[in-house]
Amino acid sequence: MSIRLPTAREYALAVDKEHRWLPMLAPRVPLPISVPLAKGEPDEGFAFHWSVYEWIDGVPAGIDTIGDLTGFAESLAAFLLALRHVDPAGAPEPGLHNWFRGGPLRVYDAQTRRAIEVLDGQLPRDCVTEIWESALQATWDARPVWFHGDVAQGNLLVRDGALAAVIDFGTCGPRAARTGWTRRAQLGLM
Fold first, then answer.
1. Quick check: 84 and 147 in contact, CB under 8 A?
2. Cβ–Cβ < 8 Å for 70, 163
């Protein structure tokens, strides 16, 4: 088994989501994912909810652990495509539990503009600003679909040179339809 101990209140918000949704997602994707076995309660020894998961053998993905890069990419693509096809009805919308991933980029506008200012002189400021402003205009008009939220090499486990599992679904969620977000933004609920 493995234990996941959130180090901050914001990370702990994902615990209930993972306990609710990972058992439902697991049989619908072609690779193993971390399925929670038990949930720990906060007490004087640890301030947040925490989780116990099934152990999945493997090592983090890396150029030295992957045998066939094309096969690895195809396996990952098949996994992500299968995840997108799982019905997200009732799933939590983007929020603090996943750092608003799946929501509109406007959530990150002030932070991105500050970063552009800080990096002025190290990057083509006008070009980057133009690209950012173009990205802000992009919309998602399709149905909501599940996404992982953190497809990083440390969250992809390899065994015998092949992709063996996908772990850490703390930032997962469904890509929200734009109409719902627009209304919540107008109400100041984002």
1. yes
2. no
